[in-house]
Amino acid sequence: MQEVLGANSVKAKPEVRAVAREAARRAKKAAPVRWQFMERAQPDGPSPALARILRGDKAGRRGGGRGGEVRLKLLLSMLWMIRDPAPVLTVPSRAWASLLGLDDPAGRGTRRINEAIAWLADAGFLVTDKETGSIKRLITMRDETGADRLYELPGAVLRGLGPKDVRRAEHFYIQVPAGFWTNGWISLLSGAATSMLLLLLRLQANRPTGTELWFSPGDAKERFDLSDDTRSKGLRELTMAGLITMERRAVDPTSFEYERVRNVYVLQRDRLDMPARILTDYDLAPWWGVAADIDTKAADDDTKLRQT
Predict the structure, then answer these.
(1) pTM here?
(2) What's the structural domain count of the chain?
(3) I need a labelling partner for 12 at 20 to 30 A (CA). Which of 73, 79, 251, 255 fits?
(4) What is the pLDDT of residues 282-302, one digit of tens each?
(5) Contact at 8 Å (CB) between 144 and 75?
(6) Domain span at 274
(7) Are the C-beta atoms of 155 and 32 separated by less than 8 Å?
(8) What's the pLDDT tens digit per position in 192-241?
């Protein structure tokens, strides 16, 4: 669901953000996502879960990608909602559809969620058990990397492992802020843009804010197993959303050879805390911050009114 603002931009509808704010009462402050969900554990290892979910791969076969965006956003939302050590959720499909901002959440949206749940269950990411005579579906999460084990919060696992335990690397993780949901980003960003946001959060891990990030098309394929189309589409959309800024940098500015340049990106993570807006005209990118400030002030004013 999105609201078109003239020919310049789109933003999430208020009802989508309202659903997410309600969900935030039950969810965590951020969704932990293991690094190995996004990248190969070994250079010659199998495709990471992110790429397989986006494409629809199962049992070593390509699935055509239909529904990949819903599958990815649904799994991320489940990771956000799990709080207790027991990785069990009983959220109705209609509520998931509303949280993701799908059209017709009680009808077509619910069917799309049910299809995504069935795929994730067949692929081993979760187990479902619908109680007889009940509209509630019991979902038990498996490890989001595709490892054959019950889901555990990665922070809790790391706290239980010694500092030199070789298994620690399996549980290093990024955190996707709650603003990804509560500010409507989940309903506006495509599957490609969501994937690239996860990858940039991974590259930003353990680095100072404002670090210039980059990866080549070869890295995208070899390390993350994502196509050039997903990479270019996702990065352009994140730029239009104001979530990254892009600059061109010389690969070796001291070289006397023909100058080679590459694109570098700076993640604007704080903008996830602002109401979601995506520009429809690339040339208007510098205007994004002004629009975001207007939206943020309006949201603050709305909060003050509700408190009085």
Answers:
(1) 0.86
(2) 1
(3) 79
(4) 555 554 454 444 444 444 444
(5) yes
(6) 2-307
(7) yes
(8) 999 999 999 999 998 988 899 987 778 888 999 999 999 999 999 999 99
